[in-house]
Fold this sequence. Notes:
- By secondary structure, the chain is an all-alpha fold.
- It has 19 helices and no strands.
- It has helices spanning 8-27, 30-51, 57-75, 80-90, 109-117, 124-136, 140-147, 151-168, 184-199, 210-226, 231-244, 270-286, 291-304, 313-326, 330-344, 346-353, 362-374, 378-390, 395-404.
- Helix 3 (57-75) runs antiparallel to helix 4 (80-90), helix 11 (231-244) packs antiparallel against helix 12 and helix 17 packs antiparallel against helix 18.
- It is globular, with a radius of gyration of 23 Å.
Amino acid sequence: MSADPHGLAALHRREVGRCTATLVRVLGDVDLAEDAVAEAFAIAAERWPRDGIPPNPGGWITTTARNRALDRLRRESIRDAREREAAALVDPSPPPPLDLGDLDVVPDDQLRLIFLCCHPALGADAQVALTLRLLCGLTTEEIARAFLVPAPTMGQRLSRAKRKIRDTHMAYRIPTADQLPARLEPVLATIYLVFTEGHTATAGDDLLRPTLTAEAIRLGRLVVELLPDQPEAVGLVALLLLTDARSPARTGPDGELVRLADQDRTRWDHELIAEGHELVRWCLARNAPGPYQVQAAIAAVHADAPTAADTDWAQVVALYDHLLALRPNAIVALNRAVAVMELDGPAAALDVLETIDLPTYHLLWATRAEALRRLDRHVEADAALERALALTSNAVERDHLEGRLTRP
């Protein structure tokens, strides 16, 4: 942070999604909005050290980005349509461009941006990745790590998605009320990944990005307000609340990572836990289980245990079995393996880990190292930790893994 005395990096993390969402609504052009916001931050980096930070930094970025976009439209206004587009921006209350449908259906700019990016014409991975890029300002490399794919592959996906939005004028069309449920699954997936990035940052010097976890919870609540009878939306909010409740205990006095088993549970936010439990009970009463509801139930089991030793691991494994049937993927299988280690021991967990194909995921190797360590196979455990370290981009996680090495 010493190299960023004006806090631009923190401001970017906090404001880039809101600014981009606002510009997408005003401009109806994803590429232009993203470029304009990036240019505004570049101007801030040049001017603020000289002129000082403005009273409303986020508003300054949005206004500057809007003005830059207006300048660009004017320069490119070869056709009358471009001239009208630029003139509309001058009017503080312009008529909506093209066919925007019912704007009141999704009144929040950031949530509207998610629904726009989650158009059915885009592939599921592209929908989520594009929203992470625009809403969270994540780099292509960070998004690639979240999807466990190479950065060039993710770059191509993002480029294709933005090109399709531009060529089909997709960004000009707001979903109507009857279209919202069809887009719910990728919207929830995006909010979940926004939270995940805030819960454990992919890269950087800090483990947590609280602005992202708070934003994900806010957006989840808005989705529930829009679609109150969707159990998966409610289940997602329950999951986020129950998980975020542990945040105060996840780091120590010096910012070091504290594992779940070692956390001081008196520091957990018990108001969030109570609300999460209430939502889980609401979901159970609907008897329409989905992946987020099952994950929320797992989080509720952890929240119920006054100590790590009191955790009902049999119930956790049973819930992971159910989740694996609903969402059969390697990440769920890995999380289940962690629970199996607590219930049936490290040898059983190691057998499960041998079947999971996640060679570039650091937590697979960290989990394998823990199982090997419990079996007193320390040389192999250290080798697995070295693999995990090579794949870890977050400094706090790296420090934690280095601390677990047993050899000098």
